[in-house]
Give the backbone structure.
Amino acid sequence: MIIYHGDNLGFRLKLIYLVLDGMSDRLSDPITTLESAEKPGLDYIASKSKCGLMYTVGKGIAPESDEAVISLLGYDPHEVYTGRGPLEALGAGIPIKEGNEVAFRANFATIDPSSLRIIDRRVGRSLKTDEARKLAETLDKMELGEYDGYVRVVATIGHRAVVVIGSRTHKLSPMVDNNDPAYKRVGLVSVANQTFNPFIKGIEPLNNSGEAKTTAELANVFVKKSIIILDNHPVNKERVKQGLPPANALLLRDAGGSFPQATPLGVIYGGRFTVLAEMPVEIGIGRAFGAETIVMDPPTGKPEIDYKIRLEKTFEALEKSDIVYVHLKGPDEPGHDGDVALKRTRIEEIDKYYVQPMLARLRDDTAILVTADHSTPPSVKSHTDDPVPVAFYAPGIKADGVKAFSEKEFARGSLGLIEHGWMLLPMIIRFLKE
């Protein structure tokens, strides 16, 4: 993908595009996390902004982060999306041989190996990245014994990994289902199931092609072999001794066989575009769509340090770029875990250590756009299709006068209800160039 290094074509203002992963809850929740959080920085932005709500992909779609972020960047994901697996692979620096390899996003999980019952889809979020890498290295380059098949396994952050199923002599297809029962495949997109049977599924082809059938067979061979190896791995033996759940299975989903092909962001908007991200999927999206992509180290667990580093990188990028997209992961995980108090803390940390210092340093030539990629209500413990809040501040803009940064307050904002996330950024860019 070509990165745009050309001139600024008409930008009057620069833009910090801040996306807080899974920040919002359900409008029907009695009190949302945003309403209960102490967040003077976000509330200040709200009071000075034009506000509204937005379906990041569309009404009725509970999006995964990848399709939502693609939409927030101004692309219709239905037109350019090739699956999450390739984006995770690109973010992890793994090439794909189109036609002969298929990439999956993967989670290390804890299961009962005799029944395949899933005990925890994310190993209790306790798996360390160095442990995951040792497990992945044992599985990497496994020969599958059928169809000249092989596998690449690369651990990324925590329980997350990328699995690439390949064949030296047979064509493969991404049109296969997930073995993760928490997500159903609809074409190349996965949608969260609100309820599911907690057992590893056999991967099934989604069409009758020989390529899809071969891919499904190879993936199932890998899953079976990997469970045996992982359950007996020294890392897991040690974890069990310490009273920790073993990472003895891999949940595969969101297969894809190619990287997206689309007009680069800088060409579309006529300006220099930077993506600042820490997770492989957002890193992969930045690279796939032609942004200058700054890879941040994973969080240390010390928010005062982590957000200071991210803020410095934001302002460094603003010196060279017209638009800086900043993706902060904090609120999403506690939303998945149903932990209201921790989700509130994560929002407050972002406000205290990123948003407030950002406002203190903001120059008169810079606008701010704040939103979320999706809602992750603790009341549901998964992504939902609820609309997310949107606030746009720019010097001299006529504010809506809302009192706080929250879903219910923004429902009365002048931006109204935006039907698709890909409509947002083109609208904002027009303002920045007026």
Notes: Residues 17 and 325 are 5 Å apart (CA to CA). The two ends are 29 Å apart (CA to CA). The chain is about 35% helix and 20% strand.
